[in-house]
Amino acid sequence: MAECQEMASTSTDTYPRKILEYMEGFLISKTVFTSCELGVFDVLEAAERPLSADEISQAVGASVDGIQRLLAACTGLQLLKTQQDIGQVFYSNTEQASAYLTRSSPTSLYQAIQYSSRTIYLCWHYLTDAVREGRNQYEKAFGISSEDLFQALYRSDEEMVKFMQLMNSIWNICGKDVITAFDLSPFKVICDLGGCSGALAKQCTSAYPECTVTIFDLPKVVRMSKEHFVSEDDQKISFREGDFFKDLLPEADLYILARILHDWTDERCIELLCRIYKACKPGGAVLLVEALLYQDGSGPLTVQLYSLNMLVQTEGRERTDAQYAALLAAAGFTKIQHCLTGKIYDAVLGHKEA
After folding, report:
1. Under 8 Å CB-to-CB from 21, ≥6 apart: which residues?
2. pTM, entire model
3. Which one from 228, 262, 338, 351 is the annotated catalytic residue?
4. 338 among known catalytic residues
5. What is the arrangement of strands in the sheet containing 189-193, beginning at the earlier edge strand?
6. Among 90, 112, 136, 191, which residue's Cβ finds the most Cβ atoms within 10 Å?
7. 50 closest CA partner among 98, 101, 87, 89
């Protein structure tokens, strides 16, 4: 027995545990994708009591055997809790699952997960090609030319709403952190360029009640935002239609670029920032909301993976705070600061001299 334990200890030292975990990471993501798609967490939330595998399989229209295996995996991922009664296992959501994986939750990531499953995951199938070619893979994944990036991203109304739902769920959770990373109260007139669903604009008007926010986005995005996300009750939020690379930008004290610059090359970023600098009121500023890499590029891992995602989906990349500062400086902005929020997204603020 002692000999067996010694051998096990020795083999553990050389066992490629991390490599196997990384190799099998897609199994975890697909387990979460499938559980959400089937509505497992929604069924358990609506039941308001623990359910058996038989009850869940019937509710979601799946085989008992398949559901039992899926539920076991979700339990192992600590997304579900179990309890036993008369030899039968009953399942319920954990707090995390209720908060982030049910459609009804105000902090739900359900739509983000659906977009990851049905769009991003398909692009990542061609990651090897993206690395070899140095360009995104929309054409192989969806048969759509990516010459116009947002024509590819918004290739149908359905796909556009999915993307907007993704951004909406992200900013509902992370928006307050980035909007309050700096004191933005001196800026009363704000323009959210590429403001999409308006979720970040809502966070803005909530944190700074004296400000007004104009969402500047493509006409079809504005139409969808009014239809699905921003109601007439949001009186401090207005819209302006246009392409921020081509059309006249609204004059404002502060411009917000949230997850915009990471879509583009350095040259296009400077082009856009120059246009913003020209439109910006003296004494105004621009706020960049991005996931920042460490200065030496050694992490964080999440941001490194986001940068690969930019390769398969866009023309851009993730950057360090110094790299964003260089882009801002090239456009004329000064007194550049950055703030690490400790969450997924960080903030960089550049000023225009008064």
Report:
1. none
2. 0.90
3. 262
4. no
5. 237-241, 212-217, 189-193, 252-258, 280-290, 346-351, 334-339
6. 191
7. 89
